[in-house]
Every structure is written in C-alpha cells, then in structure tokens.
C-alpha cells in the first residue's frame, strides 16, 4: 500500500468532490432529504483558516479520507464536520488518522476543545469517537432518538510549556533552590 499524504483543501476544490459526493449519498441514504440539507448547511468559508480547516488524506494523489473543523460556540472550541472515508478504503484506520490530524491542527490553531455530533444511524462513527477518547454528551444506555444528533467532546492536551533557563533560575531562587537542567 502506498504512503498517505495530508493535504489542506477548500470545499469546491476538485479534490473535495469525492468527499462531498459520498457524504451526501451516505446522509441521504440514512436520513432522507435532511441529509442533503446538512451537507448544504455550512459553506466553504467556515472551513478555512484561521477559524477552520479541511484536510484530505491522499493516496497516490487521490483523496481517500478527510474531515474538517470550524469554530464552534466559543473561541476555544472547534467543531468537527465532514468526516469521511472513501467507501473503497474503509477498515484501514483512515478515520483515526483524520481525527488525529484534525486534532493536531486544531490544537496548533489555539483550540482546546473539540465538539462534534454524529447521527444516530451511524454506529461506526459513534464507535470511532468512543475508541479515540471522545466523551459522549448523552447517556450511552438510553435508546437512540430517531433523528437527533449525538454530541461528543474531547479536551485537547495542552502542549507542555518549555521554560527558559532564566525562568527556571527565577523560579528556583523564589523557592530557595538551585536550578537544574
């Protein structure tokens, strides 16, 4: 199997056509006309920097998976949208890879929390989010509502702050100790 590359894209770019086509088909198949409405709900501008991003995983230059984030309710929360794996490339861990890439990019953009929803007729998505550390914001034991989205969240790990020797020296002096490096 050839190596995957990560590419940034904008909705409407030719490389995003398979993502839009397959996601629209999946949503309409599972949820009826509301699926098409969901795909039309958010425009390309919502998934562009600095507030958003759309990533694709490419294999030999062809998109095989992707996803996006956009700013959610506050400046510290990104919302994941448009999570997709090509029907021809499922069961290869590509969804996990897309999540990891989006989480890393969102963290670098200053987001500290990820929010997302998935439909009740997408058990594979629910399983992916649970397996990758997302917390359900609903009762997992309760019956799934027919068309109500299932919300999840994940708090991103803050990068460890690297201090300078001068900062370590000042902190050690304040504590009455010798600094160590």
Helix content range of the residues, please?
Answer: 25-40%
Question: Shape from CA axes?
Answer: globular
Average of per-residue pLDDT values: 87
Distance between the termini: 44 Å
Q: Give the H and E element order.
A: EHHEEEHEHEEH
Uncertain spans, ≥5 residues at pLDDT below 50? Answer: 160-164
Radius of gyration: 20 Å
Number of helices: 5
For the largest sheet, list the strands in their spatial order.
1-2-3-4-5-7-6
Query: What's the number of extended β-strand segments?
Result: 7
Taken as a percent bin, the fraction of beta residues is 25-35%
Overall structural class, as computed from helix and strand content, comes to alpha+beta
Largest sheet: number of strands, sense, barrel closure = 7 strands, mixed
What does this structure look like?
- The protein is 32% helix and 25% strand.
- It is an alpha+beta fold and 181 residues long.
- α1 packs antiparallel against α2.
- Mean pLDDT is 87; it is low at 160-164.
Short note summarizing the structure:
The protein is of the alpha+beta class and 181 residues long. It is 32% helix and 25% strand.
Ordered list of secondary-structure elements with their pairings:
Elements: E1 4-9, H1 17-31, H2 33-40, E2 53-59, E3 62-71, E4 77-85, H3 94-108, E5 113-118, H4 123-131, E6 135-136, E7 150-155, H5 165-175
Provide keyphrases for this structure.
alpha+beta; about 180 residues; about 30% helix; seven-stranded mixed sheet; single chain; 5 helices; globular; about 25% strand
């Amino acid at each position: 199997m050839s190596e995957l590359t990560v590419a940034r894209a904008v909705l409407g770019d030719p490389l995003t056509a398979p993502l839009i086509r397959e996601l629209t088909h999946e949503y309409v198949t599972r949820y009826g006309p509301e699926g098409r409405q969901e795909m039309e709900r958010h425009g390309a501008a919502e998934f562009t920097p600095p507030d958003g991003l759309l990533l694709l995983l490419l294999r030999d230059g062809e998109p095989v998976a992707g996803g996006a984030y956009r700013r959610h309710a506050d400046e510290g929360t990104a919302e994941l949208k448009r999570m997709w794996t090509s029907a021809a490339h499922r069961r290869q861990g590509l969804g996990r890879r897309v999540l990891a890439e989006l989480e890393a990019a969102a963290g670098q953009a200053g987001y500290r929390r990820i929010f997302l929803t998935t439909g009740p007729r997408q058990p594979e998505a629910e399983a992916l989010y649970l397996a990758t550390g997302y917390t359900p914001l609903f009762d997992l034991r309760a019956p799934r509502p027919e068309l109500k989205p299932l919300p999840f969240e994940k708090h991103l790990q803050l990068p460890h702050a690297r201090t300078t020797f001068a900062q370590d020296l000042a902190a050690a002096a304040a504590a009455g100790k010798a600094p160590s490096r």
